[in-house]
Amino acid sequence: MTDATTEVKVTAASDIEVDREALDQSIHEFAGPNGDYYVNAFHKIHDATSPVPNTFNLWAAVLGPFWSASRAIWGMFWTFLILEIIAWVQIGRGAWGNPGADMAERAERQQARANELLERAGEATEKADIDRFTKLAENIQKAADSSFEKAAAAQSEAVGIMITGLLMLLVFKLVQGFYADRVYEKQYSNWRTDPSSTESGRSTRNTVMGAVLVAAIAPLIVYKFTVNASLPLLDAFPEDQVSEMILGPGEGTLFSNLASWMEAQIDAAAAAGGDVFDGIVSGVRTVLDALTIALIGSPWPVVMLVICVTAWRAAGPRVAIFTASSLAYIALLGYWDVAMETVALVGAAVLLCVVFGIPLGIWFGKSKRAYRAAEPVLDLMQTLPAFVYLIPIIAFFGTGNPPGILATIIFGMPPVIRLTALGMRGVPDSIKEAAVAFGASKWQLLKDVEIPLALPSIMTGVNQTILMCLSMVVIISLIGGGGLGKEILEALQYAAKGPGLLGGFAILFLAMVMDRIVQGAFRREDEKL
């Protein structure tokens, strides 16, 4: 029994030794140069029971960001590059800078002003003027003396500033030395998990890149913040000189030439496609007029009743009560007509977004090539600030509600397209294969299988589109759009806080009502499924 136990222990010790040798070989492979040091350091880190660092990497402390770059630890590189630059700025301010330069310049200006007032007092003939100029000169002279004292005090602190910078640099170096091995050990763990995504060893390319970054960043920042009058080239980009080099003398700037060219191109496109743009505006106006007649032309009790019943049927009694309360708030404060105009604007935009967005989303969901081609356009539509694309909208379509709806469509259509495509791609292939095996045609597969299964994602996209279109209400008022956005714009122009807040609450209630109705309808449809 004793011999068997001893044999087991020997075998276990042998296995541990084999595992340790394999680990050491792996660390050597990862670290490359100075592999023995990192083997010992990583073992110390693994065996440590305290969070206090128990290793010190001298080269990391001495070389700082250069060591981090050579080992591809870029997070540590950028962190300590910034910290060391801050320390060097303090050292430079104390060693060769002039901390009191700004105060000294201010004192010289005050002294010059005091001397000017004294000269005017000497030239004055009336006693009242002499006394006034003299008193002003005395006051400014006191301020100048105070500024000179502060400048001298700041200059006397130069040694203290330099010592502070040296202490900061020493602390940063020590921190890098104590924590470098721990950070590198974490990178080793990531390398063991996925060698293809984590760099290993000491790379000459990374070392050179780190040196270039340090040389390009650190000297310029230290120079800029320690020299009293730095080069004008560092303070402002020389766009005039660059434009002159590219275009030639007397040809204006790149900005003026490019802006003039773009304006000419837009004007030419607007003139060439005038009939097309007018047709688009006419189509949008048709949809808007139909909704406006239904919401504003119909008796208000009928409209309110239809909306409340729709809320009840779609989302239940609680949402219906909230909808009735919101509509009562809008009506009692005199916002009924403009609120219904807002609903018409948003409804027209959402209707057009859904009519064009869902088919496009279905197409993009079934064709990866089409989606890849359209994705940059969708990103541009969703990320470009609305104020930017209002400019070409005005140039091509004019001002008023229809152009405002077109601007809203640009901003509100991407969610329904993206989420429809996402829902279509999320339909399991096994279900589609089963439907085809039972003889379903492409149209039946789309109508009876793919769209019903993608409906939750599609409805989420519709909901997002509604809210994004409603968020454009105030912005489209800048190009002549009506509705509650116009009320908010007027309140902003005249700083009318009360009317602005009341109108804002009206928009908020409209958004909440639309969101609750759509969400309620979606939940009920989901329960049916």
From TrEMBL:
Record-annotated membrane-spanning stretches: 72-91, 158-179, 207-225, 290-312, 319-336, 342-365, 377-398, 465-485, 491-514
Any one GO molecular-function label of the UniProt entry: amine transmembrane transporter activity
GO CC annotations on file: ATP-binding cassette (ABC) transporter complex
Membrane-protein topology: Multi-pass membrane protein
InterPro entries associated with the record: MetI-like (IPR000515), MetI-like_sf (IPR035906)
Pfam families given in the database record: BPD_transp_1
Alphabetical keyword list: Cell membrane, Membrane, Transmembrane, Transmembrane helix, Transport
Localization per record: Cell membrane
GO terms for biological process, alphabetical: choline transport; glycine betaine transport
Domain of life: Bacteria
Chief location bin: membrane
Occurrences of domain ABC transmembrane type-1 (ranges): 339-518
Entry similarity comment: Belongs to the binding-protein-dependent transport system permease family.
Protein name according to UniProt: Glycine betaine/L-proline transport system permease protein ProW
Species per Swiss-Prot/TrEMBL record: Ruegeria denitrificans
Gene name as annotated: proW
